[in-house]
Design goal:
The chain is mostly beta strands. The protein is about 5% helix and about 55% strand. The chain folds into two domains: about 20-95, Carboxypeptidase-like, regulatory domain (Immunoglobulin-like); about 225-759, Maltoporin, Chain A, CATH 2.40.170.
Length: about 750
Amino acid sequence: MRIYLITFLFIVFITFTTKAQQTLSGKVTAAKTQQPLIGATISVPGTSTGTTTDSRGAFTLTLPSTTDTIVVSILGYQTKYINPDTLVNNSLISLDTDFRALQEVVITGYATNRPLQQTAASVGLLTPRELERYNTTSLVPALNTLPGVRMEERATASYRLSIRGSSLRAPFGVRNVKMYLNDVPLVEANGTLPLNLLDAGTIGKIEVLKGPAGSVYGAGTGGTVRLETIRPRAGESALEIGSMVGSYGLKRYTATATTASETSGFLVRYAKQELDGYRQQSAMDRDAVLLTGQFYPSDKQTFTFHTYFSDLYYQLPGALTREQYESNPRAARQVNIDQKASLKLQGINIGLAHQYQFNEHWRNNTSLFGVFSFLNNPFTTDYERNANQAFGGRTQTTYSTLVAERLLRFTVGGEFQHSFVNSRHYQNRVGEPGKLNFDDEVAADQGFVFAQAEADLPGNFILTLGSSLNFLQYDLTRVSSADTTSNYRNRRSFNPQFSPRLGLLKVISPQLSAHGSISAGFSPPTDAEIRPSDGSFNTQLQAERGLNYEVGLRGNALKQKLVFDLVGFWFKLNETIVSRTNAAGIVVFDNAGATRQQGIEAALSYAFIQDSRKPISFLKVWSTYAYSHFRFREYRQNDSDYSGNKLTGTPPHVWLAGLDLESKPGFYLNATTNYTNKIPLNDANSVYADSYFLLGARGGIRRSLGLKWQTEIYGGIDNALDKTYSLGNDLNGFGSRYFQAAPGRNYYVGLQIKYLIRK
């Protein structure tokens, strides 16, 4: 009898112990869309036990013995209380929308995975709905809807991107802004960003983090842009083709194949785009191939990869004087035609990322990347041929826990990149390389380590505190001078820079939050600025350093029909890098003292109708506005004092407004207006580009034909009022050549056909 009693007690003990160590795993999704909810909290009331969902909406949680209820919650959705005994592992938990709270897309920047209303920063967001409002030949119109963001196209496929006036003064692509493609750094080895290699149709989501984001992304006083490529939908296999034709010889073709299951997904897309160009000497031709995929070998692991190849050619028409521009804006500069000025760029970007959820507390994200490109650039003054390569990686580890039922999260990590450029400059002999002027090899090592803490505080406050330590070194070797001088090697190192960030957010109500932040950042000069085309080594050029103060208010009202976001900032930048043109017409660079950049950014929208059951299922009007009071604080150039002048290249006022309409039968219409104030084109503020008002629209119909076929027919008009304006300007242009005319009124029509193999 005693043996039976002991056995019985042993069985009871084992049962109790098993229950005490119960581990629950599952996935949290939105009930309406079945999309995963990232950052949802799963907690046990009255204890410190809890976790958050990862990028797949998945979680794993070890429960204490007395647990009879778990709480699943996330802002914008109704909280659910569940008895864990009713769940099994890999359970699907669906949350209904809470119409009293702000419906938000989760922001993955700043490593927080929080809804926008809980993000203590100014963030611009473009989802597929916003990106598909425009002609998919370019990201320019979509990015320009974000207040404080300005993208310019100086020539066909030659882009510049500015966040709060950060980089319009740089003539080479994007500067002072960090950019990531699927969490992999997107950068050329010479320090500039090849936006022109990207096909706009392959981008599915864009997050723009405005202002210094050094606590997570290192160097960059302007901000950070996070791009995500389109991805296959879970459980769907499909084939899709598209075709578009338009004004000025536009031809565009796409072909896409996708397949996806619960454990993997693959997408391959080919895009071909040709354009004769609005101006003389402005044709372009681009082929782009994207291969991307995801693997989910277990509930704890996610592998993602992408390979992006682009072959781009475009001609350079050159800037015009005001007289030439007003006489014939479609003309090109004659020397550009004579010298066959153009750019041919072939590049491949490869990225591999791995996420591992060790348990409910620990998670690691690690990515590796490689960039390889070849450049041929006959220009008016020389012929440049480059071979570029870069490789590196990024890793971050996050620890999350609950303290007194409040979330506490710590993140540490680092990013490193090594790059090498072999740059050869020749005389340009009518589009062919002539005599070698110089042959350079440039190696660069750069990186940073970072740490960030985030805590939910009493009173519905959220505190973020982070910092990074950044380093950069250039090794410059003029190979062509090795046999004539011993001083053919140069090294430029920048002292490690500390960039802190402090953010505080107050959730005033489910419909309203306020935030403030103080952040510091720095931007070192690029290879193109240290080694300009005149053949010199500008090793005295200093890194820019900035400090940003920011406050904001965002929320909604009238049952979420009215949504608003208001931000004010004050940014002080020291050692500002500006460009000037020397007597030979070659662009060189100087540190120009300091600037003071103050501004207000606002976004407002009102949804009159948002009901899929009605004939007009969606009707919304929206508007964005940016006021930029940007001035040189201290700026002397030779005998001229430009202190107090307006910052070159930045319009004081930019206002956009739009209307979006969708109907139950599938018809849709998107209309947009854009007013941009006059822009100072030189540091002396003696020359301005005229203000302009643009009107554009896109409309079409999307229909399903049976269960397998989906079609879309669309058409659009840009610059409907046929305004003459200069979108890409040559700042401080040599010979008073400032103006790069944008296309006049132009049209396009297109067709998309999709066949569902499996759904």
